[in-house]
Amino acid sequence: ESALGMVDTSSIAASMPELSFAQRLNRAVSKEHVGQSDEAARELRDLFATGLHSAVVAYNIGNILARNGSYDEATDWFERALPDESCRVDALANLVFTVAAIGRYDAAIRYGQECLANAPDNVTCLLNLGFAYGSQGRDRAALEWFDRAVFRTPQNPDAHCARAVALSRLGRVDEARKAVDVAKGIAPASPRVRALIIELEGGNGIA
After folding, report:
1. pTM for the complete prediction?
2. In whole angstroms, what is the distance from residue 69 CA to residue 15 CA?
3. Residue 41 burial (CB count, 10 A)
4. What proportion of the chain, given as a percentage, has pLDDT over 90?
5. Following CA atoms 114, 119, 121, 127 in sequence, which dihedral angle do they give, to the nearest 10 degrees?
């Protein structure tokens, strides 16, 4: 499970002198939110070509690509967003996930360290570092990051779910069930929570 953050474009759009550009930006982001990812990405690429607020546009393109599993391309776009301080931390946090997803674990750790040096409580980064370590089979290290994420945001069901996965892989199935129960109490309708409950009920833990 990824944990991808979002940059709030509303304040940026409000400050733009070119209202038509602001409208196009918000329209593209809105399309992605309702499942029109291809159309949103096309419009955002057109906006990027204008050169206006290109880092924010690049960041949003990266988000769309990452959510659709195009991690190599997403990485390229997140890296284009890094020079802009307004979205640098969020881009770094998301890069932890995308580079780990394509096996660049050392890069994931470097991006994570830089992100946390600037934003120690960035939960997206904490969760994605857990993902990076877990993807290498380093579940104890992953659990430490997920524990930090839970500590920072105890009402975040994704953090509890991630923690449950790591606990189960470490053979601590009873603790994993408790973590899923907490997540269920926070978000009972979550598909992720329901899927974990089914896996745990199978008796073999979480894959």
Report:
1. 0.83
2. 32
3. 22
4. 66
5. -40
